[in-house]
Amino acid sequence: MQDQTAATRKGRPPAKAHDAHVDLIAVVVAVTDQEPSVLTVGQANALPSGPFELGHRSLQSGLRAWVEQQTGHQLGYIEQLYTFADRDRIGEQRQQRVISISYLALTRAEHAAGPSKRAWRSWYDFFPWEDHRSGAPPVIADTLLPRLLAWVDERDHDPLKRERWQRAAIAFGFDGRDWNEELVLQRYELLYEAALVEEATRGSEPNKSLPISGISMIADHRRILATGIARLRSKIKYRPVVFELMPPAFTFLQLQRTVEALSGRLVHKPNFRRLIEQQELVEETGETTADTVGRPAKLFRFRHAVLDERVVAGTKLPLSRA
Amino acid sequence: MQDQTAATRKGRPPAKAHDAHVDLIAVVVAVTDQEPSVLTVGQANALPSGPFELGHRSLQSGLRAWVEQQTGHQLGYIEQLYTFADRDRIGEQRQQRVISISYLALTRAEHAAGPSKRAWRSWYDFFPWEDHRSGAPPVIADTLLPRLLAWVDERDHDPLKRERWQRAAIAFGFDGRDWNEELVLQRYELLYEAALVEEATRGSEPNKSLPISGISMIADHRRILATGIARLRSKIKYRPVVFELMPPAFTFLQLQRTVEALSGRLVHKPNFRRLIEQQELVEETGETTADTVGRPAKLFRFRHAVLDERVVAGTKLPLSRA
DNA sequence: CCATTTATTCTCTAAATGAGTATAATTTGG
DNA sequence: CCAAATTATACTCATTTAGAGAATAAATGG
After folding, report:
1. Fewer CB within 10 Å of terminal CB in chain B, N or C?
2. Could you give the domains of chain A?
């Protein structure tokens, strides 16, 4: 799953007319001080990216080269996210097609020294409504809910109103529904559709009452970031990827705080420990933490062997033994 | 998740030199007569595909257009699979880069009449080792195991031998391990690496003792098909996508047989029923089947409402209530 | 009517999950 | 040095879910 790439098709006449510009773009994630952060460039409002060039051996190596050049950061774990190609989601129009192939990279924030243009930034700067670690953030009730209600009311008649309202309610957990932390992309797309994010209004006249929600990014980078967050929030649940973000040795609490930072939710401490233990994902290093107050915690390391042993979780289909 | 696309990047000088040819390629799946089949073109050894052109509104609409033109088949549900760009996996070398953006489409085999070049073909023709509905297929013990052992033995020394053997054992369930039906792509890649599939030997001199395993496809289409099968086998477990493959009304057994066809494994009938029922995925139509022997089965239909109600399964993180 | 076939419902046990409570090992303020 | 305070770790208990199979129901074909 971590290394897929290849060209295809048999000798078809090269259709130069349709050739496209291909960009590689990276969502590089680290967690430091209980804050999930993303690697940015420029005015801290762009993801590292660059064109896929003839010199690149593969998509992945092209991506690594660009990120390293632009941020000085070397990537470890990466996986492909999604390939975008909409014309209408970019401000300017061009004659030529642009394809963006996005990747998710997991890393630790330290790594390589020296002065560089790299800037880590909490992803909740861009998505303030996504952090529910201390309850639902006020921005939802104060800003988003009223605005979304207005957007629902744009519709004249009932079935259409209800459809909009239901979508909003599912995405944000209104009407007593549960908050679902995985719906990052749906929420962003809804806000985009309701024109509650700055980038949705770029083509139009500057409306001073907007924008309102979070820091925006250039082009559609915020959408790509949303895609990455959604993927990661989903993936930590069934694959041991959190450990890519951890130092070599860590305590249970540190691990828990990392998961909480990513998912934007608090987890139940004893049950979290039980979950990790029963899956045998970690082993004791023998050391304990010294620096803290309270009872010192044992240090653990990730059991890399699990990557070989059980490639994947379990079934979920009620298989028959026959 | 079903409709994502967009262009990116701010005004960077168009780097014509690096422009790439972009192909769209479809894994179109249907299940008929308990056989999972894939839509092919050409000599029934190619997936429908075509270049992404300026006239296409989006990647998805371009894909739909090509499939419709080449097969006369109209697509319903589609989702993006993966974007490939390896140079070394295609027979011929070219100066220009080729990007293949692949999609998975789910449909029903009937649909549109008239003469057409479309051909449905069981995916097990291409992956005979993947069908475990009547136990492990003989090809594994008879052909693959000995060949893989020889491949393991190519390595001179122990740690390297062990590493190869462990990979094979995990992928194919040797050494008393369980068969994991989701590892379709890993298995294919392993066979490719061990040169046990025809396409792995295309650059080299024709070795008569090979090829051996399944029907091959042009270029890297078989790899893309493997990617699609793997995705589908994984996805049916946590999202109600099987219903895209079912007729409007169906019995529990038909539904079960469809799941079995896709996963290549038999499921436990009462527990399968319980699973579907407790998730309230279906409702009775009121009719029953007439044509069969034995007790007539009730007919059910998919409750489309579930797509709105619960967008997604559940948590899997031990959340705290606070 | 009886054997056969398929459908549907139950039962029972073992695991996994959710939610707390209890106990252990430290540090820190007096 | 002792009593909070603080964090870590271990247990408990009820509830749900999953795995495996038995029992019952409703047809068909003689």
Report:
1. C
2. 20-124 (3.90.79.10), 134-213 (no CATH), 247-305 (1.10.10.10)
